[in-house]
Amino acid sequence: MNQDKEWSQDSWKNYSALQLPIYQDAQLYQDTLQKIKNLPEILNFEDINVFKSQMIKVSKGEKFVLQLGDCAEVFDECTDEHWKEKFSFYDRMGQILDAIVIGRTCGQFAKPRSQLLEKDGTLNYRGDLINSLSRDDRDPDPSRLLLGAHYTKKGIESLKQYEGQQIWVSHECLHLGYESAFVKQNQDKQYYLTNTHFPWIGDRTRLHDHAHSNFIKGIYNPVGIKIGQTINKTEFINVFKLINPKNEDGRAFAIIRLGKNKLDKLKDIIHWKQEEKLNISFFLDPMHGNNIDKSGHKIRKIEDIMYEIQQFFTILEQQNEIPAGLHLECTPYDVTECIENDEDINPKKYTTACDPRLNFRQTRKIIIFVNTLLKKLRNKQ
Fold it and tell me: Taking the complete model, does pTM exceed 0.85, yes or no?
C-alpha cells in the first residue's frame, strides 16, 4: 500500500484539481466540512479489510465483480423502501454470475460534467451532493454535503439489515473536499476512506499529476480508475504506478470505457500493462462510451453494449488476460432510457437524474449474456 510519508488527507490541495464546485460562501463550506470531519467513520476499518480480501481474489482471477446501480443517486430515493428494492435487484443479478456484488450506491451523489453550463447559461446539474435538479437551485450548496453524509450512513445501515448476499458499496471519488473529510487513520497509521468500500476516479479526473489521483493514492481501500479514449501510454503507466507502487493484489482496477468502435485501444492498454508488468485487473464499463442522441434524449443501445462486452472478452482472451468485472448503470424500475431495436423513448419513463440506465429486463438480458461468455471462457481453461 502506498502510505506516502508526505501524504495527508489534505495534501491533494497541492495539485491542480478538476471538476470541483465553487461555493459562494467559502466559510460556510469550510465549517460544513469540519462538521463532517468530526463525525465517526461510517464504515469501520475491518469492513474495508474484508472487502480488500475479496478484491485480492479478483486480482488473482478467482472471482468476478458485478458493479451496478444508478448513474446518479438522488436524495428523494434514499429511503429504506427504495434501498431494499435496489439491494434485492443487485443481489439477484449477482447470483446469476456468482459474482462479488458492488453497488453504485450509498454515496453516488456527485457527477462530473463535460460542460459547466447548459446551453442557456444555467449551471449544469452536478449531482444532489452539489446542487439540485431544479433549474432554479443550481448554485452549489454546502448544506447538501451534510445530507450526503446522512444518507450514506442511513443507506449503509439499511444495507446491514439486508438479508441477502453481501453487497459492497462504491461511488466516484469526485468532490475531494467532501471525500477527504471521511479519511480516518487506524492504529497502524494506515488511512482509510470510510464512506465507501470501493472509490473510483473518473476518466476526466485521473491525471497522475492532478489532485484526484494524488488523493486516492494514500488511502488503503481498493480503487478503480476509469480509462477512456484519451488515455496514452505514459499517463496509463504513471497513474497506476502512482496508485499501486508495490504492485499489490487487490489494489488497482482499470475500468475500461472506450465505446464499441474504439476497442483497438484496449489492445494497446493490455500491451502497456504487460510490458510494465503492472498488477492491474480489467473491468468493462460498456455504457459510457456508447452514448447517442435520440429525439433530444441521451440514450444507449443494448446492441452496442452487448457488442462491446463481446469484444472485451475476445480481446482479453487473445491477450491472455482474464475479465475481472462488469460495470453497469441500471435500475430495477421500468424505465426506457436504453433502447433495443430502435424502439421509441417514452418521456414519462425517462427518469434518470443524469445518464441513461438499463431497466431490470435489459440488465438481466446482458448479465445472462455475460454468464454465457464466462462459462465458455472457463471451459477453455
Answer: yes
